[in-house]
Recover the amino acids of this structure.
């Protein structure tokens, strides 16, 4: 009888995940699960973060078939026993600080890791978008799966299109933000987000909010956001962000809507060639349209 080959992967917390054979049953943080799905891996369960509710945030889910994959809960409402009841061979998550398993309470993460290997991929400041993508690709490869060979060429083409779009005489001003409500808004610091840094590397003119507290965001009033006079506004579409219809009582938001092209932005999009191809292609089209108007 053929013996199983031991499996091991070092994650971005510096921890070694080990199993007696290649894991088959995987529970994942929803963003990680959507990324694995793009590599041909079907999670047996997914979970959300402390920002999520009793149901999955569809903005984070990519192409996951949410009707067929159990959602186990989120944040403090996710009990370790619920996650372990899915009988995972492996838990895949992300980390923003290189220490914490994002989406799991620290006590929950400790209890889960006592029973099953946990792999966290770094997606925060200091990690480039291509590096995040390749880390997930390497993990998927260790699990025997991967994206189609055509995906690399499609991504290259989308990146070329974005560079060409940003090379014209007019360079639109781009602001990324997450609406907190009618009075406050979180302005993204481009250096803190791998996808925004990648846009800048391809020539996109991203606006930098004023310095101050907050590593990832600068939280200000809508007047400060409107004063930046962006031509394109990348607006957070995750469930925890306020919707545009809830903001229209504010004159400054109305001024932003009147001036700028609003583009859906998902700070927790899948980290795959497929997803990044869509992102770059969409930005290239928006920039061409804005620069030509």
């Amino acid at each position: 009888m053929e013996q199983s080959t031991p499996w091991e992967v070092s994650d971005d917390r510096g921890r070694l995940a080990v199993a007696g054979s290649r894991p088959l049953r995987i529970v994942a943080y929803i963003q990680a699960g959507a990324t694995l799905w793009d590599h041909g891996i079907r999670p047996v369960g997914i979970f959300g973060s402390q920002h999520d509710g009793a149901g999955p945030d569809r903005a984070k889910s990519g192409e996951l078939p949410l009707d067929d994959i159990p959602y186990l809960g989120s944040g403090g409402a996710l009990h370790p026993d619920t996650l372990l009841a899915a009988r995972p061979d492996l838990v895949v998550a992300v980390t923003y600080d290189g220490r914490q398993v994002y989406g799991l309470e620290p006590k929950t993460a400790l209890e889960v890791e006592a029973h099953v290997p946990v792999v966290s991929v770094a997606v925060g400041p200091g990690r480039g978008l291509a590096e995040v993508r390749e880390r997930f690709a390497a993990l998927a490869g260790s699990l025997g799966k991967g994206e189609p060979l055509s995906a690399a060429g499609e991504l290259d083409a989308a990146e070329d299109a974005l560079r060409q779009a940003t090379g014209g005489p007019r360079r639109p001003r781009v602001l990324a933000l997450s609406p907190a409500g009618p009075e406050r808004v979180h302005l993204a610091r481009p250096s803190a987000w791998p996808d925004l840094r990648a846009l800048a590397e391809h020539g996109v003119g991203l606006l930098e909010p004023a310095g101050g507290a907050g590593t990832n965001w600068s939280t200000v009033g809508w007047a400060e956001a409107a004063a930046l006079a962006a031509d394109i506004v990348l607006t957070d579409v995750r469930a925890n962000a306020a919707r545009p219809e809830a903001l229209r009582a504010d004159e400054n938001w109305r001024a932003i809507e009147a001036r700028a092209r609003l583009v859906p932005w998902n700070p927790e999009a899948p980290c795959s060639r497929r997803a990044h191809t869509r992102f770059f292609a969409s930005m290239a089209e928006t920039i061409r349209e804005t620069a030509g108007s």
Q: What stands out?
A: The mean pLDDT is 95. The radius of gyration is 20 Å. DSSP finds nine helices and 13 strands in the chain. Residues 38 and 178 are 26 Å apart (CA to CA).
